[in-house]
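Students often ask why inverse folding is considered easier than folding. One informal answer: many sequences map to the same fold, so there is more than one right answer. In these notes we will look at a single instance of the problem. The structure comes first.
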């Protein structure tokens, strides 16, 4: 008789174990520089490997997807619908954040002498640089067109990369048979990079362990207590947004947000642990396709969402801005709150899905309504933990967007969606034979 094969521990469980062990080790070695010296590099290597594969995957899948659409008119319609949807959802997120911060007023009465201040100088420098590069909507539009695509790829600038890839894909479609070898090459690159992605994911638990251990060892668990109200408010707002707002949108589109979460559970745990939505971008594209979203739609909507549909980031920025204002006993008028909404709508566009970027955007936003920038130094200690949750919302929002756009276009394969888990089980069983 053949011995029964032991059931392999799933990636979600492996990452969760890495997360818990990282918290324990970080708490034990709080203040110990050896954590940063010996453990943190493992997390840096993992994140570097993720960043390494993002650009090739986006370029290759977009070329294949757009060439599959075949015409500028189709791509233009999809692009316009997608941007309208993104703008509506992010605006809802901002308004929800301001509403919850207004009614709870958790920032009032906090003794700021109990809070430890973090060093925000590096974030201030980044904010100044961002302010120099982008001044408004027109600057964001101008920055979409790259002067040097190789430079944009090297810097990981998503919007120029998407623009070039869409244009190149249209060119491949336009030249007919001559473009077939190029299309075959792009498809080969995409397939190879997805294999590389699955290989890199095997290292994810170690990377997560290292990143979390360093965070806890640096800031300590005690830093959470004075800002507990902010953490509770942000986590409640994020969960409410996923379950209620995205849940209603999913229901309208004929899908279930809870089913989507179940499909993406590995990616959501990884995104939470690393605070980087980029770390899961390749696998989201793979899974949405398997769940019924056509490749050309998923490969366009998801990468674009990483610049235009950061629901969690905008929701957090709205809450944090009002929380800091309340700490300083600044009561924002309705006009100032409207200015805050409009400012966030502009500044949140085109930011990268990497740790800490929301903090930089927040710095550039506070000045617009007269909130002291120094207030951010007080919440820096818990920002990483808040960043983890807002990344989950960003991933949920972009994943749902792919399903909504596919449904809107009348191309969502409901058979694949309904039978996703059965198909995955069958595929796994075939591999094990």
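Output (designed amino acids):
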């Amino acid at each position: 008789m053949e011995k029964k094969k032991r059931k392999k521990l799933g990636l979600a469980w492996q990452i969760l174990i890495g997360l818990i062990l990282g918290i324990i080790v970080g708490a034990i070695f709080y203040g110990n520089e050896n954590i940063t010296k010996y453990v943190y590099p493992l997390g840096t290597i993992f994140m570097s490997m993720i960043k390494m594969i993002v650009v090739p995957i986006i370029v290759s899948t977009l070329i294949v997807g757009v060439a599959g659409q075949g015409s500028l008119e189709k791509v233009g319609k999809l692009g316009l619908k997608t941007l309208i949807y993104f703008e509506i959802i992010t605006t809802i997120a901002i308004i929800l954040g301001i509403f919850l911060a207004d009614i709870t007023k958790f920032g009032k009465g906090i003794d700021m002498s109990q809070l430890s201040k973090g060093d925000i100088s590096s974030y201030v420098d980044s904010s100044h640089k961002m302010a120099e590069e982008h001044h408004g909507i027109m600057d964001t539009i101008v920055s979409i067109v790259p002067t040097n695509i190789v430079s944009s790829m090297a810097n990981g600038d998503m919007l120029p990369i998407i623009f070039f890839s869409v244009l190149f894909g249209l060119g491949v479609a336009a030249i007919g048979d001559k473009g077939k070898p190029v299309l075959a090459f792009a498809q080969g690159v995409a397939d190879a990079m997805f294999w590389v992605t699955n290989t890199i994911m095997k290292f994810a638990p170690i990377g997560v362990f290292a990143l979390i251990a360093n965070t806890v060892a640096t800031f300590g668990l005690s830093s959470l207590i004075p800002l507990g109200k902010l953490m509770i408010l942000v986590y409640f707002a994020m969960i409410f947004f996923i379950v209620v707002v995205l849940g209603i949108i999913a229901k309208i589109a004929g899908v279930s947000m809870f089913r989507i979460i179940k499909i993406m559970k590995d990616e959501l745990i990884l995104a939470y642990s690393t605070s980087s939505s980029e770390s899961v971008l390749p696998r989201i594209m793979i899974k949405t396709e398997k769940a019924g979203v056509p490749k050309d739609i998923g490969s366009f909507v998801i990468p674009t969402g990483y610049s235009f549909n950061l629901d969690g980031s905008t929701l957090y920025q709205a809450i944090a801005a009002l929380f800091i204002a309340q700490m300083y006993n600044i009561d924002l008028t309705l006009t100032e709150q409207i200015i805050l909404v409009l400012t966030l709508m502009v500044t949140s566009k085109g930011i990268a899905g990497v740790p800490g970027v929301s903090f930089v955007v927040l710095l550039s936003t506070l000045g617009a309504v007269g909130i002291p920038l120094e207030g951010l130094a007080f919440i820096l200690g818990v920002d990483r933990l808040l960043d983890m949750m807002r990344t989950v919302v960003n991933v949920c929002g972009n994943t749902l967007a792919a399903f909504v756009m596919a449904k809107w276009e009348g191309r969502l394969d409901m058979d694949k969606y309904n039978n996703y888990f059965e198909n995955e089980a069958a595929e796994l069983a075939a591999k094990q034979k």
